[in-house]
Amino acid sequence: MLAAVVTAGVAYLRWTQLVPMLVVWIFVWLMVLALLLVNFQDQAFTAVERAAYVYEAWFGGDPEDLLGPPPEAAADPGTTDPPPAADPANSGDGALHFDDGDISSWLWRYWALLSLAGWILGGLRTLVFGPREPWRLGAKLKVAAGVAALASAGMFASWLWGSETFNGGPLGWVALFLGVPLLAWLVSVWSLSVAHLLDRFADAAGRSLDQAPGYQIGEDQARS
Question: Whole-prediction pTM value?
């Protein structure tokens, strides 16, 4: 029983290290998608329209369900929106005020919740599909480097062939398009390395502690 508890705790600590990496990569790819959408908006809108009419042809729906109603149909002069509810964080001068304690508590809370969600999903995946062979650390870092290179290529494509003008010197944009994916990769190096060390610690702890029913499930979750 003790071995299962230790292994489950290490698995949760592992997710606390993986969550920052996932958040950083989500931010990077939202940035890439925003650049691509703005700089290739004509192609993007054409693709959305085609997808809407394909949806209509296949499923019998109305393209306006995806594209939205026309502006004149969306506006209803006979109704008015109610005034917004009072926000307790609003001091009355029209601005929201947060202190360092509010921000730090918010970050810690959501970091813990996201780690818990990842830990639970990892355990469910192991229970449903069984354990999988863990990747080597070097292979994980190579995959992260490939994702970083792909993100950088998307940024450069928006800059070189996009329809919008990027103000400022080219060196600044080159540094941004190389630096942001590189920073995400460095965060991945840290997260994956710490997770790898925690995996090894879980293996060592499992071998040294008494075996108990359910131990194998906890060990598989730590490896997943």
Answer: 0.65
Position 53, amino acid: Y
Match 């994956």 to its residue by tokens.
192
The per-residue DSSP string of 137-182 comes to: HHHHHHHHHHHHHHHHHHHHHHHHH-SS---S-HHHHHHHHHHHHH
User: Would you mind telling me the total number of residues written for the chain in this entry?
Assistant: 224
Maximum C-alpha span of the chain: 73
Tokens of 54: 């394909």
In 125-195, at which residue ranges do the beta strands (DSSP E only) sit? Answer: none
Asked if 134 and 199 touch (Cβ cutoff 8 Å), the reply is yes
219: left (phi over 0), alpha (psi -120 to 50) or beta: alpha
Tokens matching residue 92:
């009355």
Separation of first and last alpha carbons in the chain = 20
Distance CA 200, CA 208 (A): 12
Give pLDDT tens digits for 178-204: 999 999 999 999 999 999 998 888 777
Name which of 185, 129, 209, 205 is nearest 222 in CA terms: 205
